[in-house]
Amino acid sequence: MKIILLGPPGAGKGTQAKSISSKYDIPHISTGDIFRKNITEKTPLGVEAKRYMDNGQLVPDSLTIDLVKDRLSHEDCKGGFLLDGFPRTVNQAEALKNFLRNNGENIDCALLIDVPRDFILDRMTGRRVCPACGASYHIKFNPPTNEGKCDLCGQDVIQRKDDNEATVNERLEVYENQTQPLIEYYEKENLLKVVQGTKAINEVFESICSILGSIK
Ligand code: ADP
Ligand code: AMP
Q1: Which residues does AMP bind (predicted)?
Q2: Burial of 171 (0-12, 13-18, 19+ CB in 10 A)
Q3: Residue ranges of the chain with pLDDT lower than 50?
Q4: Model confidence pLDDT, tens digit, residues 52-84
Q5: What does the pLDDT read at residue 64?
Q6: Domains of the chain: residue spans and CATH
Q7: Cβ(64) to ligand 2 under 6 A?
Q8: 193 bridge partner residues
Q9: pLDDT at residue number 216
Q10: Ligand that lies nearest to the alpha carbon of residue 8, given by its number in the listed order
Q11: pTM over 0.90
Q12: From the DSSP assignment, how many helices (H) and strands (E) are in the chain?
């Protein structure tokens, strides 16, 4: 199964991705996580990406597209994959389509987690993430079992630098201008499925499973 997760920042893509990836046994590929790993390791890509991420801007397509193509060429993607946070521009979507087409493939589903804008600020300012495995928590809606520690790997969870009110507002603007057009793009491709992301985390997951179960 080759799946794209769409939705505004804070929709719950990363949260649902962990469960989907484990249920369907496909790698969870988050471009945000890849960039953050590069920032931690102070690679040239990380240094460049940080300039954009700290301001809530998109990292340029010229840095992002090749990174994803390279990741999708790894052996573990042969049986499918789950993309979280990519594509974010029509240009990225076209590059992905052409890359897959060259291998005689296409994605199976672009799944939009739909959450209205007024839910987002609370979700993102209360978000805590594990810097080691990328797991996402929320201080009110989904706290870790042991306060401050990742359930999956025991690391201290942290607040992302870009999860402050000003940067979240900028990211929402960027989403509306550059990423939202992908909803229409995938609708035209007949690949769009929509799930309401305002329900509880486990209920959203159930809806996702019933959609994915009806695809293949
Ligand atoms: P995204 O990857 O789309 O940016 P996350 O999965 O990191 O979003 O979720 C953003 C925040 O909202 C996190 O703190 C997460 O715990 C919380 N969250 C995710 N899904 C829900 C939900 N259905 N209800 C309430 N909070 C949620
Ligand atoms: P995320 O972890 O998905 O919330 O992404 C965090 C930040 O990483 C975004 O605000 C962008 O700056 C950058 N980013 C992640 N994915 C992409 C992408 N596909 N294209 C451009 N920038 C990206």
Answers
A1: 31, 36, 57-59, 85-88, 92, 160, 171
A2: buried
A3: none
A4: 999 999 999 999 999 999 999 999 999 999 999
A5: 98
A6: 2-26+79-115+169-215 (3.40.50.300)
A7: yes
A8: 111
A9: 66
A10: 1
A11: yes
A12: 9, 7
